[in-house]
Amino acid sequence: GSVDFSVDLDNCEREPIHVLGTVQPFGFLIALTADWLVSRVSANSADFTGLSPDQMLGQPIGAIFRHEAIHSLRNRITLLRGPDAVERIFSLILIEGVQPFDVAVHFSGSLVVIEAEPACHDEMEASSMVRSMVARLGQTEGMTAFLRDGARQVRALTGFDRVMVYRFAEGGDGEVVAEALRPGIDSFFGLHYPASDIPAQARALYLRNIFRVIADVQAKPVPVVPQLDPSGAALDMSLCLTRAVSPIHIEYLNNMGVGASLSISIVVEGRLWGLFACHHYAPRLPSFAQRSAAELFGQIFSMMLENRERSETAAYEGKARQVADRLMSAVAQDHDLLSNARWLGDVIFDTIPADGVGVYIDGQMSFSGLTPDEPSFAAIVAMLNRAAASQVFTTDRLVGLLPEASAYADRAAGLLAIPLSRRPRDYVVLFRAEQLRSVRWAGNQEKHVEYGPNGPRLTPRKSFEEWSELVRGTALPFAAAERRVAEALRTALLEVVLRLSDSAHEERQ
Ligand code: BLA
Questions:
Q1: How far apart are CA 295 and CA 208, in angstroms?
Q2: Cis peptide before 199 (omega within 30 of 0)
Q3: For the CA atoms of the chain, what is the radius of gyration?
Q4: Based on CB atoms within 10 Å of each CB, which residue in 20, 253, 410, 482 is the most buried?
């Protein structure tokens, strides 16, 4: 291609995947200037229209397409709203005597981009399917069932062998949190992958364009001609439906033995929450209408998920308030409870899950669950006294602060500390063990493949190993909501502690 960029495993986040200049062979592309002259055509145009790029380039589109087709396209273009809008027209006869096409049209800069593929005539079926999919989803109870049902529905609509719900964590790494499978294939459920498997520019693109299909991983991408316009610019294909994808990602899919891939962005609160990631073990292209339906389903699913997350957060915060009240009134009645680690764990773990708890009051320590031993806890408290302000303190990587903590990462790799007093400080500390403990690998998924030029790195198994390396010595981070709850507990406990010291003061007088 004319885009001078060589990719390898160390610079993939710089690969300009939106200007690679190729389409997949299942459709063709024409780009028009503002005055409707053909300025670019994919090299496969003759396969669909009988007209080669040479016969089209520089021509007014009115000399190629039927008058009625141009009228429909112009109408749709006036409907385009917002910078990232794409309009679709089903079963449009573009050229007299040539089969009808399913067509997508959008703006790329000042160019009108038209993509077309042979029409399928199944729009009604696909749209009624979305209606029943959404109705079923609305009936699921609980997040786990909701996500699993979403995966099942996408599988029913697209017919892909494997449909995963892949959820991003804060740093961009991800986990397969739900899955629907053709019977007889191995599960990826529960697997984690590093952020680099879906590099930052791809995640940014997937926020703008929420649907993509790679219909045939083996298919040779078709160049758009000319690659560069007279000013030297490549065609920005960010919103194209036929965009051919990064060769690095193709190698990854090949190494996994995947024949077709489809993914739909899940966008919640304006952020890329995750993807429906789908694999098929042979080439597969759902119809244009099925793909539109899947995209629509993705949008509705995202909104429903956003609603569910909001009500889960509200329920969680309500529960957290109850825990704070319970803690405050129980400790006010029985002061000794404050130094009873086991009791504290019982009360708190439900809202802030952790593997163990340690309490440090006036030099006295108490422990429950997985925790460091007394000398290590004393060292942690000394570190907290140096580091922490009078607020809740969290780390998911204690070894970064205390190198000797690597000795007990299997029990306490991360912590959340609630200071109970000002100075010298007393603390309730929740510990989380190294997260690898809780993660499993689902067996060797790539037994009979020849690896591509970058070797086995581009496989889920190696990705998982890479992720494992990255998270070694780290715990599952304490989420923002959990820190807020801990802050509420701190305030509640501080109030009791102050009351206690006031009354001790009065007794002494
Ligand atoms: C894209 N990588 C993707 C996509 C997924 C994954 C889902 C979206 C494109 C698609 O729909 O196929 C990753 N797929 C996964 C993961 C699983 C899966 C984690 O099924 C787990 C089961 N990829 C790498 C590495 C690099 C890389 C090491 O693994 C770079 C060094 C690059 N992945 C890469 C690029 C894209 C991508 C560049 C964008 C493809 C495009 O849209 O052009």
A1: 13
A2: no
A3: 29
A4: 20
Closest to 112 measured CA to CA, from 45, 31, 206: 31
Task: For residue 458, give the ligand 1 atom closest to its CA.
Answer: 29
Would you say residue 277 has pLDDT above 60? yes
What is the distance in A from the centroid of ligand 1 to the CA of 249? 5
Identify which of 12, 443, 446 has the alpha carbon closest to the alpha carbon of residue 258.
446
Instruction: Give φ, ψ of 29 to 5 degrees.
Output: -130, 140
Single-letter residue type at 16:
P
User: Rounded to the nearest 10 degrees, what angle do helices 123-138 and 288-333 cross at?
Assistant: 10
Q: Could you give the CA distance from residue 124 to residue 104 in angstroms, rounded to a whole number?
A: 18
In eight-state DSSP terms, residue 35 is T
Residue 416, strand partner residues = 394, 430
Domain 12-18+120-310 has CATH 3.30.450.40: yes
* Of 283, 252, 274, 278, the residue nearest 263 (C-alpha): 278
Question: Are 331 and 490 within 8 A, CB to CB?
Answer: no
The dihedral built from the CA positions of residue 305, 307, 313 and 318, taken in this order, carries a sign that is negative
44: its two tokens: 């496969």
Cβ atoms 319, 351 nearer than 8 A: yes
| 198 CA → ligand 1 middle, Å | 4
Return the H-helix or E-strand segment holding 383: helix 374-387
Residue ranges lining ligand 1, Cβ < 6 Å: 9, 12, 15, 17, 188, 193, 196-199, 202, 212, 214, 245-246, 248-249, 252, 261, 263, 275, 277, 279, 458, 460, 463
User: How would residue 57 be classed by pLDDT, with cut points 50, 70 and 90?
Assistant: very high
Alpha carbon distance 191, 167 (integer Å): 11
CB 505 within 8 A of CB 410: no
The residue ranges of every structural domain in the chain are: 12-18+120-310, 19-118, 334-434+473-508
For residues 342 and 326, the answer to whether their CB atoms sit within 8 Å is: no
Decide which of 495 and 66 is more confident: 66
pLDDT averaged over the chain?
90
Q: Dihedral (C-alpha) 94, 97, 102, 108: value to the nearest 10 degrees?
A: -30
What homologous superfamily is domain 334-434+473-508 in, according to CATH? Answer: PHY domain (3.30.450.270)
For atom 7 of ligand 1, the residue with the nearest CA is 277
